[in-house]
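user: Here is a favour to ask of a fellow structure person. I have my own habits and do not want them to colour yours. Could you put it straight underneath, so I can go through it closely?

assistant:
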Amino acid sequence: MKIAIAGLGLIGGSLALDLKKRGFASEIIGVDNNIRHCNIAVLTELVERTEILEKAVGESDMIILCTPVGAIESMLPFVLDRVKGTSKVVVDMGSTKSEIAESVKNHPARENYVAAHPMAGTEFSGPLAAISKLFDYKHVIICDRERSGKEQLNRVLEMFKVLNMKVKYMNSKAHDLHVAYVSHISHITSFSLALSVLEKERDEENILTLAAGGFESTVRLAKSNAETWAPIFIQNAEYITQVLDTYLEKMNLFRDYIKAADSENLCRLMEKANEIKKILN
């Protein structure tokens, strides 16, 4: 089938690589407002060609939205207007779902749309960040599946099967709550640590020289694209602020016990945290 991919960054580019390589797509049409991204995607053969969104939608059987979530929210009704009355599939890869789902809940072409979130990625962005096998054996969340047409849902499931992904189902609100804990707070923590170290580095030039593996792995996510993550934080503000309150409470406990030289309670906190090994082994 012909597939249009809007947003030729890490996710869109990696999808393009494997969907073509594995025979799911006969042609990939790219869409991106960044002309440099368009040129790179064509030159590196991520896509056969690029078009404006309206033309790409008209020529494609499946439209995959891989832009930042704010752009998905504004783009999705436009795309659904143009697939109404057809069997075309529209699927988004956004990291938040509630606001996007709400924006089209009464759209006459709602059944053409499947809400998805692949739990895969790196800290890099742009078409040159695209890599093959990014999605292999990762989870993908499909939200509000009962609102999608059976034919459209099955085609999206076929795509994720080709990508070797493990499918889970949730409603939009549950999804946003869970990703606030397992994804969004990790990025905020990484950004905050990087800012703290950069501020101190002005006076202590050896901090980054002495940085070891633990520091590098903790701040890796601070390299992530701000234009991607700012809309995610804003769209999921309700749940992220809840998570931040809990996180700050735990940080304050560490500060208080360290300040009081309370080794017993420090050990108790860390031993409690060690229980994460039962989940992540």
Q: What stands out?
A: The chain has two domains: 2-171, 175-278. The beta strands are 2-6, 27-31, 49-50, 62-65, 89-92, 113-118, 139-143, 166-170. The two ends are 39 Å apart (CA to CA). The chain has a mean pLDDT of 93.
